[in-house]
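Duplicate of #3305? Posting structure anyway:
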């Protein structure tokens, strides 16, 4: 009988140790925020399951017990909360009880289109898919004087909005509860104004080119180059082709209008009758085809002269230039499998 109290004490100690561990952060090194939506009327059990499924807590049971023991089970608020695996159960409960969401960082990569940005934000719980595209076509952005006057595409197509090319890729802080698509787009446009229009105003004037053409060219350079050192050379080749009334032959423009990001283009695709088909139409496409980074814009602004008229990338991503079409065809045969 003397062993029973010792066994019971051992069980209690082990249970307390487990409970203490279960309340600790899932990953103390991972402070990357995840937006979590707590619906109005959600029970503590439903909240615990949601947090556990998102890998934000170690144990749904421990979460429920902690919330009840601390008297917070009935005080958990509805809303969108920025939580991360580095937070303990105590921190998470306090955040949800406070009803205040935390800001978290969203990185818009270089080379993302308006449609890409739309999908990315929706995947992070910021609005729903289609909100950004809809606003890009229908919201009033008249205070941004550098934007083109007209839209080249349609909302249904999801391409060719006035904003394409002018949304600066960067990392932005976002509060889930205060998120409004128009305000987020205005922040990106404001960053473009600061980092591109204002910062390079003198060089833009000296270039003799209008901003719209530079932005469109920078989007082609972003799509056509894989390494920073290539960009100015690729820009030089494309400007030279444009100046000499040679078709640009940038398949990325056709991919943009067809919505084909990586799939092989068919013969019918490359013969598509569209102003975006730069194999068939001379000149720049009607709009930028992506939102380029600053380095691609600078390449378009300050291209590098070279004897080359052609380029291609092999399977490893290495670029190969050619002066003549025959040399280019030889490179195709050698490097394109």
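Output from current build:
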């Amino acid at each position: 009988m003397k062993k029973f109290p010792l066994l019971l004490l051992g069980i209690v100690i082990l249970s307390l140790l487990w409970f203490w561990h279960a309340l600790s952060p899932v990953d103390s090194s991972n402070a990357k925020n995840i937006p979590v939506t707590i619906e109005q009327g959600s029970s503590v059990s439903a909240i615990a399951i949601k947090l556990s499924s998102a890998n934000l807590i170690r144990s749904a049971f421990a979460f429920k017990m902690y919330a009840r023991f601390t008297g917070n089970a009935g005080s958990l608020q509805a809303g969108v909360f920025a939580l991360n695996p580095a937070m303990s159960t105590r921190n998470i409960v306090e955040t949800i009880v406070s009803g205040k969401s935390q800001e978290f960082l969203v990185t818009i990569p270089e080379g993302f289109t308006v449609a890409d940005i739309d999908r990315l934000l929706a995947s992070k719980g910021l609005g729903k898919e289609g909100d950004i595209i809809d606003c890009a076509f229908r919201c009033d952005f008249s205070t941004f004087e550098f934007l083109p006057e007209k839209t080249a595409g349609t909302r249904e197509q999801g391409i060719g909005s006035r904003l394409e090319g002018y949304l600066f890729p960067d990392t932005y802080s976002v509060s889930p509860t205060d998120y409004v698509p128009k305000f987020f787009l205005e922040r990106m446009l404001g960053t473009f104004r600061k980092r591109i229009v204002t910062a390079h105003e003198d060089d833009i004037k000296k270039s003799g080119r209008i901003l719209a053409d530079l932005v469109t060219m920078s989007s082609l350079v972003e799509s056509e180059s894989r390494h920073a050192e290539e960009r100015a050379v690729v820009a030089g080749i494309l400007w030279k082709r444009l100046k000499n009334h040679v078709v640009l032959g940038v398949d990325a423009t056709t991919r943009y209008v067809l919505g084909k990001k990586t799939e092989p283009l068919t013969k019918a695709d490359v013969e598509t009758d569209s102003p975006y088909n730069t194999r068939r139409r001379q000149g720049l496409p009607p709009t930028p085809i992506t939102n380029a980074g600053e380095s691609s814009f600078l390449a378009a602004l300050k291209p590098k002269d070279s004897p080359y008229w052609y380029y291609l990338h092999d399977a490893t991503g290495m670029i190969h230039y050619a002066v003549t079409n025959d040399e280019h065809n030889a490179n195709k045969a050698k490097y394109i499998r």
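Confirmed duplicate; merging threads. Strands lie at 34-38, 79-83, 104-107, 171-174, 310-313, 319-322. The radius of gyration is 27 Å.
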